Amino acid sequence: MVFQAQQAVRAAILLFFTILIFKFHYTGEITKFINPKYIGLSQIASVLFLVLFFIQITRIWEKKTHHHHHNHECSHNHDCDHNHDHGNTPMTLKKVISYVIIAFPLVTGFTIPAKVLDSSIAEKKGGMAVITGKSEKSSTNESTNEEVAQSSDTEVLPNPYGEISQDEMNSLVQKLKQSDPINMDDYVYYLNYEEISKDVATFKGREITLKGFVYKEDGFQQDQLVISRFLITHCVADASIIGFLTQFEEAATLEKDTWVEATGVLDVTTYNGTEMPFIKITDWKTIEEPSEPYLFPLNVRIL
Amino acid sequence: MNRIVRTNLFDITGLILLAAAFLLLSLKLDVGDVLPSSFLNLNTIFLSILIEAFPFVLIGVLIAGVIQIFVTEEHIQRWIPQSRTKAIIMSCVVGALFPACECGIVPIVRRLVSKGVPLYAAIGFMLTGPLINPIVIASTYMAFGNNTAIAGWRMGLGFAVALIVAFLVSFFFRGHQFKEALTNTETLTASRKKEPFTKRFFSMLTHSIDEFFDMAKFLIFGAFLAAAVQTYMPAKSLLEAGDGPFSSIAVMMGLAYVLSLCSEADAFIGSSFNSIFPTPSVLAFLIFGPMIDLKNTLMMLSVFRAKFVFSVLFFVATTVFLSIVLVQSFL
Fold first, then answer.
1. Which residues of chain A neighbour B5 with C-beta distances below 8 Å?
2. Domain extent listing, chain A
3. Which residue has the higher pLDDT, A183 or A73?
4. Which residue of B has its CA nearest to A71?
5. Class assignment of domain A119-300?
6. Would you list the domain boundaries of chain B?
7. Spatial separation of the C-alpha atoms in residues A184 and B115, rounded to whole Å
8. Is the predicted pLDDT of residue B171 greater than 50, yes or no?
9. What is the ipTM of this complex?
């Protein structure tokens, strides 16, 4: 029996990936990486890693006159159809590098804490251009959203991250259209945001309460800032920035990335030639960063 | 004696490296405060891409393992039509029905080709697999305000592009284009048939592990690059570059390539650009991204010759670009 160091390294890597993913789930950090809707899928990955680990540990000690169990007829590893590495060929510098690359996310994953994306990412993602764009686009297809059914008056219970039916969606929209003040709960935030951007005029003059982090960009006036959020479809790599341009005196004193909860009155303004919603803040306070800083889009069942 | 030490030296250093890494880990160093916040952002995005990709990659390598052990060349010959045209159409249709993700599909494609599936058919399958499937259709439909037009164009045009690229590959490339030689496998599968199921199942799993380690380094490297681009490259400079109708298509394709988003998740990002760029460019983003991107290219380079990979990249890019230019007036 011979100790196969490389196989041991591979087993260790598989095990540590299992533990890393498990750790993220256990500590709840996972919601800083992916939409909770996909938590199950990522747990499957953790289980698969564990299964592969148990398979892999059987290969650590193998007979010295080694031949592959599926490789009887071949004289050489690479003469056969499986043109890939079995981890039995001697280590070369190239292989050390590839193991270092594979171990890299393990090292950073265990040592570096997950960070909530901040306004510097918001800026890289397009910032105001994306936020104003939302309204510009929406105003063009305004006509399409008039077919909302009046019927269902049923209260929709928050069904976190699950799918909702078209009816439930419509009743959420109805609820928004009738509400004053509007409260931007995380659950309906994106839905409301879209509706308000589509048709700012309807909502003009209503009171609105929202929270988010402070985002600023060159070209803002002293008393302006955006109260913004990130919307995550799948994982934070696909985060897109949404938010409302607001105005209040103390805006200048607020640092980027400060979380605020604010109440104000919806209005319309033009920013770089685009009509967009705008909030005149009447009341605000700074808050702690919420435990779930990201927003997730509601999914409408199509079938 | 000297040689033994030399060949094992890397093994030993590998182990020591690993031990050092985990020692570091057990010390619970909080390096969060030392590193610049942009690196923390980068690391978070990097890990999130990996966490998102792992389930799909693992399922991909398991399927590849199943193909390797349980599917024989005779099966393939029976299933794939002899005529080239039919084979290409069939592969694209199968890809469209197969709900794959672009990170999981490369190992599957590699196994298919090594089992005798013609290269052009495998490429057709690789291009439609991640692009056309129910999850992608649903997310595109929703992201564009319940608009069927974009989702429809994405699927239809994507399918056409995949067909064209598969034909181009069939004209320009022969053989399997693998980096390493591949010889007759018939004797191998013949002997495999006699083995008991449990043993075959076990070798399927070990194959999957090997496949994972082949792919993982490219996946991880690609994810890191994509995260770095997101953290350090301002979209604004891109927006300014994409002013004209043609340059905006090119810019959006470039963006899709470097961002390396999952096809299931790119629709919302695409829709957030819908305002800044004309619809054809956004469509180019939505079609090009799932077919080939940075992460995917690196994974293909682990399997195929560089010349082949870059040719496919070139074929896909030009076909997507030209087809978008052609249909621009209908959008």
1. none
2. 2-111, 119-300
3. A183
4. B188
5. mainly beta
6. 36-330
7. 55
8. yes
9. 0.83
